[in-house]
C-alpha cells in the first residue's frame, strides 16, 4: 500500500504539497515510449506486461509525478465483445462492427473481463511490483457513455450524431447497451482493484457533447450504477471534459474527486460542486507548449484558485499533447510541488 499525497488528497486530507499526475503520461511526447512504439504496435504493447509496466513507471522516474496510471486503453474492453478493434498507424482507433440497433446490442459477446483480458491484470501486478509502494497505481476504464460512443460511431467523432440518433430514437436499445456496459465496467474495475490498483479513474471524455438534460436522463443513471458497484474504500476520480454546464449532475453520478477541464475556472467549478468533494485539474494541455516561465505563472493561478483547500489534485484538463516538450512537463510538475509545499 503506497503512503501517498495522492491518496490523501483523494480523501481530502491535508497534504504537504498538491499532488500531480498526468492522464496520458505514457503518450507520444516521451522518447522512451516512441522508441518502443517503433518496434511494436499499440495493442501489442498493451499485451506485453513487462513493457507495459515499464511504460507506466517511466514518467514517475523521469518526472516525479505522485501517481502512475496503468498502461492500457479504455477501448480494450471492446475487443472481446467481437466488434473488431484496430488502432490505425497514427494511433486512431477504429471499430469495425458498429452498434445501431437492439439486435446489434444483443450480438455483443458476453465475457468475464478477468478471463478475457488477463494481460491487463498482469500489467497492474507488474507495475505495482516495479513501483514497490513508491507511488500508487491508478486503474481506469471509460464511463459507459464514452465507451458506447466508440461502439456506435466506430471511432472518434466530432458531433456524436450517430450516438445521439440512437439515444433519441431508440431508447430501449440505448438502455440495453448502457446497462451492459455499466455492469461490465464495474467488473473490469473491480478486477483491477483486486490486482492492486489503489484508485480508479472513470473517463467520460466525450460526455460534454450532451445537453444537461440528456446527460441526466441518458448517462447519469448508468455511470452512477458503475460507481456504486465498485469495491468500497478505493477512491474514484470521475473525469470528463466540456461538462462545466452540468457539474452538479456529474457529482450526483458519483466519485470522490471530480475532474474538470480548463473551460471553467477551478474555484468556480469547486464552488458549484461543493467543497465536500475533491477536484482534479485543470491546466490547458496547450499551456505546456509555452515557456517554463509562463507554465509556472499558470500553475500559480490554478493553485491560487484552489486556495490551499484539501482535496485538490493537480492535473491537465485533458491528456498531454504528443508535441509537448518533455522538459516543459517536468517544469510543470516541479512548479506544482514547489509552489504548493507548506
Ligand atoms: O497515460 C497513458 O498513456 C495511460 C494509458 C492510457 C491510454 N489511453 C493509452 C493510449 C489511457 C488512460 C487512455 C485513455 C483513453 N483512451 C481515453 C480517455 C482519455 C482521453 O484522452 O480522453 C480515450 C478517449 C482513449 C481512446 C483512444 N486511445 C484514442 C482516441 C486514441 C488515439 C489517439 C490519442 O492518443 O488520442 C488511443 C490510443 C492510445 N491510447 C495511445 C496511448 C498511449 C496512443 C497510441 C500510439 O502510441 O499511437
Report on the architecture of this protein.
The protein is of the alpha/beta class and 342 residues long. 48% of the residues lie in helices and 11% in strands. It is built from 16 helices and nine strands. It has a seven-stranded parallel β-sheet. The longest helix is centred in the middle third of the chain and has 25 residues. The chain is globular. Coproporphyrinogen III binds next to loops. Coproporphyrinogen III (CP3) binds next to loops.
SSE order and pairing:
Layout lengths: L4 H6 L20 H9 L2 H5 L2 H15 L4 E2 L15 E3 L5 E3 L6 H6 L5 H4 L1 H14 L5 E6 L1 H10 L7 H9 L1 H25 L3 E6 L7 H7 L1 H9 L7 E5 L6 H7 L3 E3 L6 H8 L4 E6 L8 H15 L5 E5 L9 H15 L2
Parallel strand pairs: 1-4, 4-5, 5-6, 6-7, 7-8, 8-9
Antiparallel strand pairs: 2-3
Helix pairs in contact: 4-7, 8-9, 8-10, 9-10, 10-12, 12-13, 15-16
This protein binds coproporphyrinogen III.
Question: What keyword list fits this structure?
Answer:
342 residues; alpha/beta; 7-stranded parallel sheet; two-stranded antiparallel ribbon; 16 helices; binds coproporphyrinogen III
Amino acid at each position: 500500500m503506497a503512503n501517498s499525497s495522492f491518496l490523501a488528497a483523494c480523501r481530502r486530507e491535508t497534504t504537504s504539497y498538491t499532488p500531480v499526475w498526468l492522464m496520458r503520461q505514457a503518450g507520444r511526447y516521451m522518447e522512451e515510449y516512441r522508441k518502443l512504439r517503433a518496434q511494436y504496435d499499440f495493442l501489442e504493447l498493451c499485451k506485453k506486461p513487462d513493457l507495459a509496466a515499464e511504460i507506466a513507471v517511466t514518467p514517475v522516474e523521469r518526472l516525479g509525478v505522485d501517481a502512475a496510471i496503468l498502461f492500457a486503453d479504455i477501448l480494450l474492453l471492446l475487443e472481446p465483445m467481437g466488434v473488431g478493434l484496430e488502432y490505425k498507424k497514427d494511433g486512431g482507433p477504429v471499430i469495425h462492427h458498429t452498434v445501431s440497433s437492439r439486435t446489434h446490442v444483443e450480438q455483443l459477446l458476453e465475457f468475464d473481463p478477468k478471463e478475457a483480458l488477463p494481460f491487463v491484470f498482469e500489467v497492474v501486478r507488474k507495475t505495482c511490483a516495479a513501483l514497490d509502494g513508491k507511488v500508487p497505481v491508478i486503474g481506469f476504464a471509460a464511463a459507459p457513455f464514452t465507451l458506447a460512443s466508440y461502439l456506435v460511431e466506430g471511432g472518434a467523432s466530432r458531433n456524436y450524431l450517430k450516438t445521439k440518433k440512437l439515444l433519441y430514437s431508440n431508447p430501449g436499445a440505448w438502455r440495453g447497451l448502457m446497462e451492459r456496459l455499466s455492469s461490465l465496467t464495474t467488473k473490469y474495475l473491480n478486477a483491477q482493484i483486486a490486482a492492486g490498483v489503489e484508485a480508479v479513474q472513470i473517463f467520460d471524455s466525450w460526455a460534454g457533447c450532451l445537453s444537461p438534460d440528456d446527460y441526466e436522463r441518458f448517462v447519469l443513471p448508468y455511470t452512477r450504477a458503475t460507481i456504486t458497484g465498485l469495491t468500497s474504500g478505493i477512491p474514484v476520480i470521475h473525469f470528463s471534459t466540456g461538462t462545466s454546464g452540468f457539474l452538479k449532475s456529474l457529482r450526483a453520478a458519483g466519485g470522490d474527486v471530480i475532474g474538470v477541464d480548463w473551460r471553467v475556472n477551478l474555484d468556480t467549478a469547486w464552488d458549484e460542486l461543493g467543497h465536500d468533494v475533491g477536484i482534479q485539474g485543470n491546466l490547458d494541455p496547450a499551456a505546456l507548449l509555452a515557456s517554463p516561465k509562463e507554465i509556472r505563472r499558470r500553475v500559480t493561478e490554478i493553485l491560487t484558485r484552489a486556495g490551499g483547500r484539501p482535496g485538490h489534485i493537480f492535473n491537465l484538463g485533458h491528456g498531454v499533447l504528443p508535441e509537448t516538450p518533455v522538459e516543459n512537463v517536468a517544469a510543470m510538475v516541479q512548479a506544482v510541488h514547489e509552489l504548493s509545499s507548506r
